[in-house]
């Protein structure tokens, strides 16, 4: 990938919810589409191994964002922050004490940056997986500053299943001789489903090799992430998944009545990471106290990763939101 120039904001003496203080946080970001202040602002939050490059060369949401796409860059300003410590184009901006940081802290940092950018209200905050969880946290921190909240393939609280898998990933990252590679190999199985892998490989041996195609595919993804990601970054991103909790000792009623945003909950029927059942439960509970909340479901064989694959279904869900 060609070297990209990132915009940067410095936040000093930032206090974490756990009590620690980060003396200096460099928050990098990219802006796409209309100039800041000239159009409604859409904030896109990236997932665990993602970054601020949401469109363009190597853009991970090119099928959803761009000119004449679902989120039309001729109509909107699209802003994407890098989660501090994700290492994107900057191996110096890392957070070594990763267990002191929570998703709440990342959401609070994003709001601090928006204050510096003189943004008072956001038209939409959208993200998948970890990015969606941060969107949730942002909406609860400033419940009247987001018009549309769109958390995709994520939930408002880390489940026991998710916390358990974060532990396994953390053990691999801290004990394996090849930690990023091996953790990624394990994680890829969580992001897909047995049906997805059978459809793709059908238990066949790779031609000219003595390993199964699925093994070759997993090893390829492990090597690919190893070549582009930093160990401290992976430890932080993985840890954040277990810290999701938007209620913060409040009742669901208190939280639901406070948020003024239109809330669009999007699940994936085969997601093992954030199950459709837990997202439906979230919808059912919120609907008791809030009218402008809706539930949508992507049907896919591909599991959690479907939010990066099923663009046509996602477009159908989102098109009414982003049609000004």
From TrEMBL:
It comes from Flavobacterium chuncheonense. One of its GO terms (molecular function) is hydrolase activity. The lineage of its organism: Bacteria, Pseudomonadati, Bacteroidota, Flavobacteriia, Flavobacteriales. Pfam families: Abhydrolase_1. The keyword GTP-binding does not apply. The keyword Signal does not apply. It comes from the Bacteria. Keywords: Hydrolase, Transferase. SUPFAM superfamilies: alpha/beta-Hydrolases. Residues 40-154 form the AB hydrolase-1 domain. This is Alpha/beta fold hydrolase.
